């Protein structure tokens, strides 16, 4: 498994290096001592860029140490130990990494905009319009009519009714946990923004129909148009 991943990275690096080269770029003087040094540096750059795309939380010093040990043929881990470490990181430690990233992102957001506040669940929200607090959601059997838009961390639209000037009528219990919690904070006619940590969005399962990957934090903007209590 580890060897296969490394092979895929090397192939990706080679493709990237070729595809990124300008078709008619002028030949410039090498900045390294030899062409082999320049080539080595270019490979290092592209490996780094690919690794950032895979996981930006990797320890770059440890990556460099692994490369050196591979060249010296003096690995600190046997193949079975390396495989176990890889599987642990990918399958178990991912939740800790995701939580650290989300916690830091949301903390930075609250520092940048003091109107955002967090609940004990991790939901981070900002109310624009409180709405009619005499007409609020009481339980998950209630139905709501909402207008919304959903973005990922990169600002790309995941789902929306807003662009189509439309609304959605749905049972409260059918919405993601974070949307339920956020919607209960406002009344009929209310409007808020909310960042949902992945555990309050679609969790480790993700959502195939919306093309949401597992463990993805999402941004929701919600207008609570109507509430029907049951």
Mind explaining what this structure looks like?
- This protein has helices spanning about 1-20, 35-55, 60-70, 80-90, 95-110, 175-185; strands spanning about 115-120, 125-130, 145-150, 155-160, 170, 190-195, 220-230.
- It is elongated.
- Strands 1, 2, 3, 4, 5, 6 and 7 form a seven-stranded antiparallel β-sheet that branches.
- The longest helix is centred in the first third of the chain and has 20 residues, at about 35-55.
- Helix 1 (about 1-20) crosses helix 2.
- By secondary structure, it is of the alpha+beta class.
- A hairpin with a 5-residue loop joins strand 1 (about 115-120) and strand 2 (about 125-130).
- The chain contains six helices and seven strands.
Number of helices: 6
Listing every helix as H and every strand as E from the N terminus to the C terminus, the arrangement reads HHHHHEEEEEHEE
Average of per-residue pLDDT values: 86
Categorize the overall geometry: elongated
**Tell me about the biggest sheet?**
7 strands, antiparallel
How many angstroms separate the termini?
Answer: 53 Å
Radius of gyration: 24 Å
**Helix content percent band:** 25-40%
Structural class call reads alpha+beta
Please report which band the strand proportion falls in: under 5%, 5-15%, 15-25%, 25-35%, 35-45% or over 45%.
15-25%
Number of strands: 7
- Uncertain runs with pLDDT below 50, 5 residues or more? 8-22
